Amino acid sequence: MLIRIRKSHELRDADVTPETLYKSRREVLKTMGLATAGAIGGSVIAGEAFAARLSYKERAITADEPSTSHDAITGYNNFYEFGTDKSDPARYAGAMKTSPWSVRVEGECARPGAYTLEDILKPHALEERIYRLRCVEAWSMVIPWVGFPLGDLLKRFEPANNAKYIQFETLADRERMRGLSFPVLDWPYVEGLRMDEAMHPLAILAVGLYGEDLPNQNGAPLRLVVPWKYGYKSIKSIVAIRFVEKEPATSWNVSAPREYGFYSNVNPEVDHPRWSQATERRIGEFRRRPTLMFNGYGDEVSHLYANMDLRKFY
Ligand code: MTE
Fold first, then answer.
1. Which residue among 8, 73, 156, 172 is buried most deeply as judged by most CB within 10 Å?
2. 106-132: per-residue pLDDT in tens?
3. 253 lines ligand 1 (CB under 6 A)
4. What is the 88 CA–ligand 1 centroid distance (Å)?
5. Comparing 55-59, 110-114, 163-167, 247-251, which segment has the lowest mean pLDDT?
6. What average pLDDT does the structure give for the chain?
7. Ligand 1 centroid vs 12 CA: distance in angstroms?
8. Cβ-based neighbours of 278, under 8 Å, separated by 6 or more
C-alpha cells in the first residue's frame, strides 16, 4: 500500500486542530511554562522559552496514520547512555539534569559560543509535526513531535562557506548516566548530517511530544529528528553543534562501520548485514509492513541523493 504523504507546505484547514482542543492545549502549555519557571526559583528561563509554544502551529506531515501510544513512545526507547534495554531509559533517564542547559556552537561559523536553551528557543515558533521514526532494528512508531526546523537555528549561527557538515554531540554525564560505565559506544554519542540535509525543512529539533515537554528518555531538552533516516541519526540531549568541513565521525559508524554508514537513509533494498530491512513492525501492530524508501519521505528528500549510489553510501 502506498501512503500518500502531503508535502509540508500543503497545509489544509482540516490539518489545523479544532479550536477548542487547540485552546485547551494552549492552557496546558501555559501552565507547564509557568510551572517550570516556578520550579527554578521564579526566573523566567523555561517559562519564557515555552511561552513561544503559544504560537505553535500544528500541521500533520504524515497524514492518515494514527500516532503510536504515549506509553510506547515514552516506555520503549533507545538511549544507550542509560542502558541497552528498551526499558532502561524510562527507568533511569529521570536522573539526567536538563536545567539549566546550554549548547556549545563550534567550528566554521560566524557566531560560535555557548547558547542557553532559552537563547536557542526564543525566536522559534514551535510546530507540531507528526513523523515516523524508523529504528534500524526494524520497528517503527509515529510520533507527534513538537519542534522547529533545524535549518532555522543553524542559519542564526551564520555558517561559513566551508561548513559542509554538522556534527552533534550528546551530554556525557558519568554521574547521572549509568550506561557510560559500559564501553558499548565511544562516548559521548555523536552524529552528523551533510549541510543540505540539515537545512531540509523535514529535519527538526524537537523539544516536546504529544504537546508536552520531551520526557528525558526521549532526549530532553533538545533532540534531533530526521524522519527519512534510521532512528540512530536522531541524536538526543544535544550539548554541542559543530560546523565542519569534512564528514564527521558518528558513533554507530565508528563502532560498526560495516553495519552503519554515515548516510543511514531508510532503504528497504539495502539490508543490515545481520537482518533484512525490507519490512518493519509498527509498534502496536501485529502484522509487519513493508518499509518505504526514505521512510516514505522520498518525494521530499530523494533529490538530496540524486546520482549517489545508495548501496555504497548507506
Ligand atoms: N541518542 C543518544 N544520545 N543515545 C542513543 O542511544 N539512540 C538512537 C536515537 N538517539 C540514541 C540516541 C536510536 S538507536 C533510536 S532508534 C532513537 O534515538 C530512539 O528515539 P526514541 O527513544 O525517542 O524513540
1. 73
2. 999 999 999 999 999 988 888 889 999
3. no
4. 12
5. 55-59
6. 85
7. 32
8. 268, 269, 271, 290, 291
Which sign does the torsion angle of CA 154, 68, 27, 99 carry? negative
Residue 282 lies in a domain: yes
CA distance 241 to 104: 6
The answer to whether residue 209 is domain-embedded is: yes
Q: Name, in order, each residue with C-beta under 8 angstroms of 217's C-beta and a sequence gap of 6 or more.
A: 74, 75, 77, 79, 82, 89, 90, 93
Q: What is the pLDDT of residues 221-279, one digit of tens each?
A: 999 999 999 999 999 999 999 999 999 999 999 999 999 999 999 999 999 999 999 99
Alpha carbons 281 and 111: distance in angstroms, whole number: 43
What is the Cα–Cα distance from 103 to 16, expressed in whole angstroms? 32
Q: How much distance in Å is there from the Cα of 56 to the middle of ligand 1?
A: 25
Q: Provide the grid cell at 150.
A: 533545524
Q: What is the pTM of this model?
A: 0.86
Range of the domain at 141: 57-305
Q: What is the mean pLDDT of residues 174-202?
A: 97
111, three cell numbers: 557566531
Q: Report the separation in Å between the CA atom of 80 and the middle of ligand 1, taken as the mean of its atom positions.
A: 8
Atom of ligand 1 nearest to the CA of 179: 6
The CATH number given to whatever domain includes residue 265 is: 3.90.420.10
57 pLDDT tier (thresholds 50, 70, 90): low
Report H helices in the chain: 19-39, 45-51, 70-75, 88-92, 117-121, 150-156, 195-198, 251-255, 298-301
Residue at grid coordinates 532502561: 88
| 28 occurs within a structural domain | no
Whether 210 and 70 have beta carbons less than 8 Å apart is answered as yes
Judge whether residue 71 has pLDDT over 50.
Answer: yes
If one counts the domains in the chain, the total is 1
Cα 4 to its chain centre, rounded Å, is 22
Cβ(139) to ligand 1 under 6 A?
Answer: no
